[in-house]
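Structure in, sequence out. Go:
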């Protein structure tokens, strides 16, 4: 196996990292809104752009804030300063957030 083929196996998909981050942001949005106003009121949020914007900002901050901090801390080490490591960090955090927020949404549905 040559070096070029080894490098290809180490690449982490950017589409996967972005997709999982978007899914985690959506789940955070639904969980926060559901906790505050109930999941049945979710379609009504479109009428109130200020409220919608507030929850969108919370979702973006929640899904990108901690991974960004982790990337900053990992960048201290010279061996971790590459796109593959950054993508793995975002994928890992996205999976953790998806699992936690899914549990939160399920609990919201149970208490209905």
């Amino acid at each position: 196996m040559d070096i070029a083929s080894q490098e290809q196996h180490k690449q982490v998909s950017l589409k996967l990292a972005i997709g999982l981050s978007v899914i985690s942001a959506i789940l955070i949005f639904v969980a926060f809104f559901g906790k505050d106003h109930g999941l049945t009121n979710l379609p009504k949020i479109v009428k109130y752009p200020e409220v919608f914007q507030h929850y969108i900002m919370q979702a973006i901050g929640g899904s990108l804030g901690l991974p960004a901090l982790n990337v900053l801390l990992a960048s201290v080490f010279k061996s971790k300063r590459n796109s593959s490591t950054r993508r793995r960090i975002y994928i890992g955090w996205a999976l953790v957030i998806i699992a936690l927020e899914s549990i939160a949404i399920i609990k919201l549905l149970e208490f209905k």
